[in-house]
Amino acid sequence: MNKSIEKAGNLHKPVMPSEVLDLLASEKGGIFVDSTIGMGGHAKAILLSADNTEVIGIDQDAAALEIAKENLKEFNKRLTFIHSNFADIKQVVDKSGISGVDGIIADLGVSSYQLDSERRGFSFRFDAPLDMRMNPDGDIETAAEILERLSEEEIANIIFQYGEERFSRRIARRIVKRREMGDPVKTTFELAELVKRSVKRTKQDRIHPATRTFQALRIAINGELEILEEFIKDSIDLLKKDGRLVIISFHSLEDRIVKRTMQKLAGKCFCPPKFPKCVCGMSRDVKLLTKKPVVASENEQFENPRARSAKLRACQKLK
Questions:
Q1: Which domains does the chain show, CATH number per domain?
Q2: Which phi and psi (to 5°) does residue 213 adopt?
Q3: pLDDT of 57
């Protein structure tokens, strides 16, 4: 195992760190952007892989940034922290006065810090206000406010589209019925219990019945899918020639967007076969480094349950 990964072990466990370092080619040094730095696991491994490496760490969660600053204080001279959404990566790098970067990493999962928080509302392990905002200081609605405002059909569509939950209509119906009785869903336990009563489970189901609903609300509230394709395109623009982009996703819809966008940038046309010319906007800007998604080893999945649903894709800039 890479020595830099072993040294990074005092942090929470980053997902597939060896694969990330290999695909970023970080041992060569250079300037890298960790666009979702979280608690700093991947950033630390990158910084330890070469003495001439610098990292720009971005995160929209100010509390997570403070933890990362403490975890990575030994690298202060080679590390810059920016409180921002990863969707703003282009503006962040431009303001830094850097003409191009050597690598970019994005880990799209919820950090262990956020999941372990008893106040943020991401997890049904704790009874907390139903918040789920990645940036709690941002001017967006909480999950509770969304469920109190949207129609039954809109709630069902969110749960089905972003959570792929087949009982979405039944869940939405119960949420709205409770709201109409003057008792809207306000906490994580309330929502989890309502979903549990709405979802039929089989012996093959290994996840909690509320998992997909919580995931869907988080994605919808934070607009995670809407900004992903543009983020990938902006990241490629920022890379130097031969620079690399690595993205780790934890949801099939996210992985689908990453796959399709990278394929289009690699020159694959998605137009119908009978179209006389390409109108989908494909271009030959990158080379795919992962034709299939990379998944964590069985050993890592056993040691780090968060890695079980992770899929990693990477590409290299050509022009």
A1: 3-108+225-317 (3.40.50.150), 119-222 (1.10.150.170)
A2: -70, -45
A3: 97
